[in-house]
Amino acid sequence: MPMKRVTRSDVAKEAGTSVAVVSYVINGGPRPVAEATRQRVLAAIQKTGYRPNSIAKALVSGTTHAYGLILPNIANPFLSSVAHALQQEAFKHGQVLLPGDSGDNRRREKELLNNLLNRQIDGLLYTSVDRHPYIDLIQASGTPCVMLDWVNAGSNVSAIRVNERIAAFKVTQHLAQHGYRDIAIICGPLEMLNTQDRLSGWGDALIQANVTICDEWIFPAEYTRQGGYEAALQMLKGKRPRALFATNELQAFGCLRALAENGLAVPDDIALVCFNATQQSQFNVPSLTAVRQPIDKMAQTAIEILRTWNGTAQEREFEFELQIGESCGCKLK
């Protein structure tokens, strides 16, 4: 049989006071309470195990001390690291983070969004499935929001981001600077906007290096280990490239498996770089040369925008880091 929930009446009975006095102690007012009485109430709260109703308190104070977070797939190590950094930063400022995983599903994303907004969260941190956020729902609720990705100009929504096209250009350029000419790409699904940015950056680097863009070396795949594995196997059925850009860390791990199964070594046979690396890339053998986003700095900025929200949208673009590993052919000391 479940235990009965402790109420303020139980605390008042234990302390020998009225329920109103208990409320004054818990809420810090609006009327003063004698120190001796206050101590009796606090002792009664501890003895009974009473916990204030956070929902009711939120209705009175106008704040829930909670931010919502919606991500496309929290199983992705990069997105998990983003969620962790945001959680740590929110906690520093007395906020809890309520995470939601849309599972790369637009319908589920909308359901999560409505659920969080109905809880009257103090702010929302949001990455939409393929950059199609439900801006109208957010703005209608009046909830402060920071998009953790690119957003259409004129949306009047705050956003933090790294320029993915430029980042893809830089990491592909690094391959070209090694002297590699035959550079393939394992990208995401072609209809996705972030795929298009990363594909464009790859193409920009090839054009700058006077290398002809070969459609036969574009291998779309899901942003998963399995996607990278299957794309690499497909790639090996044709003319083998000398270098490869995987546009996601998970894809790169799947690719490494496929290459090893076919007796190919990285970087000796095929050089490899990737996008959105986590610490896993540094501890892989070989370590991966990859684009890394300044996640901690971005998390600090996102939480600060929510904390100081004044109704004016802000956009912040961050510099990425090109993490040099062994997979590209660089010899590390």
UniProtKB/TrEMBL annotation:
Pfam families (alphabetical): LacI, Peripla_BP_3
Domain HTH lacI-type: 6-61
InterPro entries: HTH_LacI, LacI/GalR-like_sensor, Lambda_DNA-bd_dom_sf, Peripla_BP_I
GO molecular function: alanine racemase activity; DNA-binding transcription factor activity; transcription cis-regulatory region binding
EC assignment: 5.1.1.1
SUPFAM superfamilies assigned to the protein according to its UniProt record, in alphabetical order: lambda repressor-like DNA-binding domains, Periplasmic binding protein-like I
Keywords recorded for this protein, A-Z: DNA-binding, Isomerase, Transcription, Transcription regulation
Enzyme's top EC category: isomerase
Protein name: LacI family transcriptional regulator
Taxonomic lineage from the root: Bacteria, Pseudomonadati, Pseudomonadota, Gammaproteobacteria, Enterobacterales
